[in-house]
Amino acid sequence: MSVQFGESGFDPDSEKQKLENEKQGTDYGRPPSPRRGSMRQSYTSLRKSVGSRAAGYETKDPFQGGDEVEGDEEEINYRTLEWWQAGMIMIAETISLGILSLPSVLATVGMAPGIILILGLGVLATYSGYILGQFRLQYPWVHSFGDAGEIIFKPLGLPTFGKELFGWAQTIFQIFSMASHILTWTICFNTVTGSATCTMVWGVIALIVFWLFDLPRTLKKVSYLSISSFISIFAAVMITMIDVGVEKPIGSAKLSATQALSFQSAFISVSNIVFAFAGHACFFGFISELRDPRDFTKALILLQTSDITLYLIVAVVVYRYSGPEVKSPALGSAGSTAKKAAWGVAIPTIIIAGVIYGHVASKYIFVRIFRGTRHLVKRTKLSTIAWTLITLTLWVIAWIIAESIPNFNDLLALVSALFASWFTYGLSGVFWLFMNKGQYFANWKKACLTVSASFLFLVGGAVCILGLWTSGDAIHNASGGASWTCKSNAQ
């Protein structure tokens, strides 16, 4: 099935584009079956003519080695994902921690505004994700936001600046997301074990576990684990919903359709919703490992249908029966026994979603170091040592952040304001405007899409500026936790 991309002015199946792809050494037809040749042969022949510095920036296939690819070492094939596997990885990455803060969002802003915000921001995230897929098809050598930044800033004569700005911003965002998973791990094990040991010890154990799971160098193995991750978070929230539905901790309290609250509280809630849709920073990395990048749209639809539906159901049900005192993370709203069961069941999703962020962040640095060499596509001693050290270093940094910002909601709000605002919304608007330069008002449809892309950019900017102010102030005034302490953060 061919996906139409006419609105970007780009069609991967057009004769003109095929000629352009042939010149650049790229092609995005499906790879041949094993009967017609190996995956290695097909991709090598498709990309053997790629220039490493065409157009003034890197256009070489990130997973093609250099001239010294020959050797006896085991070759690593990165492009192994079917669309459903990519979809499950995206679900595991996205529907993890974000969902746990949403019932408290409804408690803060009210039932009606909360539902509208979740639905509206979810639809916007779907559209922005689709634009990322279009951009990757038009520039098939893009492996990360760093590569995209290089392209965007080239007309300004600053390709290196764009590469470094976007690439390291993506990596820092992912490290902060890794930190939020370490923090959630400590809450989980303190709750399940009754605070059996020092919180910092649980943090160190989390660091080791996440690092060990990140040692495999491709996403294919993670795709199978991602299925268990989805089952894990689904079962955990089901336990919570059933328990609060039976126990009704809300008691005689009444719910309000809307709430009177400060601007700061309201915007932290918006930032937490943004974090729930913040998987976009990893999308280019996922597309790079798809067998056919055109299948990304299917994976995106699977993701967005699943997360919007689950977010609305969980947020409404848990808030409806827990009332204004609903906990964040939401699993803490269940009764004592059910709460421990829910947290125990959630352990796989805490691990796997964190591992995905760690993998993509590490892969960016790894590709930057070894792009164009045999160490990227061969399991050499140097590449193995480098991958091990990169993953370990990033998890140590994430652990330091988790110990320094111990408040769950405030950490999510800060991450959303700094990074998710742009990766999920703002930059997609920039990419669309870049791809359609000179065609903004060519017809009424282009005019509407130009307005939509501009709106995405404005949403990203607003969430960033206002979110930084509100989350920074909240962290400064926070009294819910202490940094670098053995004190329990159990729910």
Keywords:
single chain, 491 residues, mainly alpha, 0% strand
How much of the residues is beta strand, in percent?
under 5%
What is the 3D shape? globular
**Share of helical residues:** 55-70%
Average residue pLDDT: 83
Q: State Rg.
A: 23 Å
How would you explain this protein's 3D organization?
The protein is mainly α and 491 residues long. The chain contains 18 helices and no strands. Helix 5 (111-138) packs across helix 17 and helix 7 (159-193) runs antiparallel to helix 17 (408-435).
Secondary structure elements and their pairing?
Elements: H1 15-24, H2 39-47, H3 83-94, H4 98-109, H5 111-138, H6 145-153, H7 159-193, H8 199-213, H9 220-247, H10 263-276, H11 283-288, H12 296-322, H13 336-345, H14 347-370, H15 374-377, H16 381-404, H17 408-435, H18 444-477
Helix pairs in contact: 3-9, 3-12, 3-14, 4-5, 4-10, 4-12, 5-12, 5-17, 6-7, 7-8, 7-13, 7-14, 7-16, 7-17, 8-14, 8-16, 9-12, 9-13, 9-14, 10-17, 10-18, 14-16, 17-18
Task: Briefly characterize the structure.
The chain has 491 residues and is mainly α. It contains 18 helices and no strands. The longest helix has 35 residues.
